[in-house]
Amino acid sequence: MDSFESFRESYDDGETVFVEGSQGDCAYLIEHGAVEISILHEGKPTVLATRVAGEIFGEMAIVDKQPRSATARAVGEAVVLRLSEEQFKYRLDAIDPVMGLVLRTILERVRETLLRLKYEIADFGIPVTPGPGRGSGSPPTDLGRKDALDRVRLERDLERGLNENELILHYQPIVDLAGNSPVACEALIRWNHPHRGLLSPATFLSLAEDSYLMRSLGQYVFEQACAALAEIASRRDLPFAKKMRMHVNISPKQLLYPNFLRQIADIAHSNRVETKSIVLEITERLLIDQPDEAMSMLNACIDEGFQIALDDFGTGYSSLAYLSRFPLSEIKIDRSFISNMHSNSRSIEILNMLCSLANTLELRLVAEGIESQEQADAVRQMGCPNGQGYLFGRPMPLAELKTLLSTAAKTSDTVATQGSAIPAQD
Ligand code: C2E
Ligand code: CMP
Ligand code: CA
Ligand code: CA
Fold first, then answer.
1. 325 falls in which pLDDT band (50, 70, 90)?
2. Which listed ligand is nearest to 116 at the C-alpha?
3. Which ligand has its closest atom nearest to the C-alpha of 37?
4. Which of 69, 184, 269, 289 could form a disulfide with 174 if both were Cys (CB 3.0 to 4.6 A apart)?
5. Protein residues within 5 Å, CB atom, of ion ligand 3
């Protein structure tokens, strides 16, 4: 079955999509074919415009909550994608707020003009010239159209996936390199797609971040991660579990949502998880783009008890100034440094420097992407206390993490061997 079917509709030539005066709670994007927009005048339809593939129609009912201002019928065979009210409004709000206002005003004026036009047609018989694309400007380019349609498809599919619990978290251990015992784990999202299999965040996260879905996705991740931590901490057979930390990735937009902090604090509280056991992983992008907002938000998170880790340190725009300026608890060294370590002496110098800096600033340090014992030994000898990577365990479902933790509790110095024996999940 086509997973997009629920919001993709096919119409035969002349078939009605909706009629003037009916209520509407969605807009439509035309995927194939064309749609004719008409109004009834003295019982006969007058064509106002013909919308073609890549164009939108039915948007006015969302903007002003009025009944449909015209009738829409397929011209030839037409396929349309339904654009939910939330999808449409998010886009309107996501652009510059002034432009959003301008667009709303234009759309409202179109409705007023339409009503006046109807009145004029009825009273004075002023003709309305029908014609393809009338009033719509030029149709979008092929590339713009394909992008727009793909985004809408994926977005609706992701919304469906979220509602049907297809989004799941995997957990990857972070270990103390001295004894390889787990001290924390990082929650990493996956999409268990019914047709496409297990999808990594690279395939859907940036789309979610740019859509209205990130808020619910972020909340869902936080809830699942807190519930998992509560479950781990309640295990009596895991002596270190009470002190374990849960790392949760927070995208820049999420952190700046109004109510973000209240929401995560409430989730932690309702799961009886101490906020100090939660590490919010942020990236340098946030500190560069919105330093003032980031600073006040991070301080508020710290006041609430949360810890902050700077993720992927060393990629892109790294500045040592952030390390002392922002209220961080931890730095995670990007895995590119670890994988380059033996071929690039600069990586070793930087790693050494970071280890002593973290020590001076009293920041915890985690080396990411450790895949071999050789790498683990090298970073430990440089003074990096913690590590994360396939050597200690791939991201895995909660049940497997619990097994790994039980094994680690029994043989605390052989986690590395156990971890690498765990079948790959990703
Ligand atoms: P990240 O936060 O840097 O997460 C670490 C990534 O490195 C994960 O990829 C993990 O599977 C991978 N990894 C861990 N150890 C090794 C190793 O030894 N070798 C190699 N080659 N890779 C390793 P993943 O799970 O695909 O996640 C990619 C990114 O997606 C994450 O990078 C994070 O930025 C983002 N992400 C994942 N889950 C979430 C989430 O729930 N919320 C947000 N906002 N972002 C998320
Ligand atoms: P809505 O009012 O939701 O339903 C009818 C749709 O027809 C409307 O949104 C617009 O998308 C479209 N429409 C209304 N008036 C015109 C017009 N004058 N020219 C082109 N399209 C129109
Ligand atoms: Ca991370
Ligand atoms: Ca990282």
1. confident
2. 2
3. 2
4. 184
5. 249, 281, 311
